[in-house]
Amino acid sequence: MIVANLKMNFLIEEMQAYLKIINNQISDYFEVVICPPAIYLHLLQGYNYKIGAQNVYWGETGSYTGEISAYQLKSLAVSFVIVGHSERRLHLKEDNKLINQKLVAILKQNIKPILCVGETLTERKLTRTMKVLETQITMALAGITKSALNDIIIAYEPVWAIGSGIIPSQNEIKEAICYIKKLIFLKYGLKLKVLYGGSVNQENIRGIMELEEVDGLLIGSSALKPQYFVNMLTLISK
Ligand code: PGA
User: Fold this and answer.
1) Which of 213, 193, 216, 194 is nearest to 205 (CA)?
2) Per-residue confidence (pLDDT) for residue 132, from 0 to 100
3) Around Cβ 26, how many Cβ atoms within 10 Å?
4) 157 assigned to active site
5) Quick check: CB of 194 below 6 Å from ligand 1?
6) How far apart are CA 105 and CA 198, in angstroms?
7) Tell me: the pLDDT tens digits for 102-160?
8) C-alpha to C-alpha distances, 16 to 40, 41, 65, 222, nearest whole angstrom
9) Which end of the chain is more exposed for a tag (fewer CB within 10 A), N or C?
10) pTM for this prediction
């Protein structure tokens, strides 16, 4: 599974040009999810990829100026929503409790949440990585029924690897993802998909995808150039 997080990029004509390039080139070899800025979600319908949103509000409808609900996203054929991205944790002060509310709202609409977790560089240096992952995951998943939990995808994104060009060693990725999978299995008796995200590019994509523990990727900057992105997909479909 490959998720492209386009973040807050592109004017309308740039988005249209982007889609023109990717629309006919994405084969169904992988499950590909494109997450554009919310204002462009309606432009993506009817192609060979799934549509993802980058954020959601936890209410369903009503007086919440500026917000968009999972109920509304559903009507735009959105099937995935990114939740708990480190940029939102940092700039919008989203905490684990709020992330939990969002997960509940998304699952209620039968949309699949992609829950991002990951440690900062300081936390890694202090050997707190696993503790941070445990707290983020258990607080985000609190109170969610086992059958609903099954729809959640986890993305392990070390904060220090996002947009930095630095990626963890294969061992570090393996270790963190194994830990996440084990935690979820022991706590909830479930096997959930775990993606890796942070500075994935044409040079490192194959190595990361070769890791047996990695079920897919969450790609930011490298997904912004459409042909580069399509070529990346070709590299791993061979
Ligand atoms: P990046 O972003 O690929 O640019 O590091 C990943 C993400 O933020 O999900």
Assistant:
1) 216
2) 98
3) 18
4) yes
5) no
6) 26
7) 999 999 999 999 999 999 999 999 999 999 999 999 999 999 999 999 999 999 999 99
8) 9, 11, 27, 18
9) C
10) 0.97
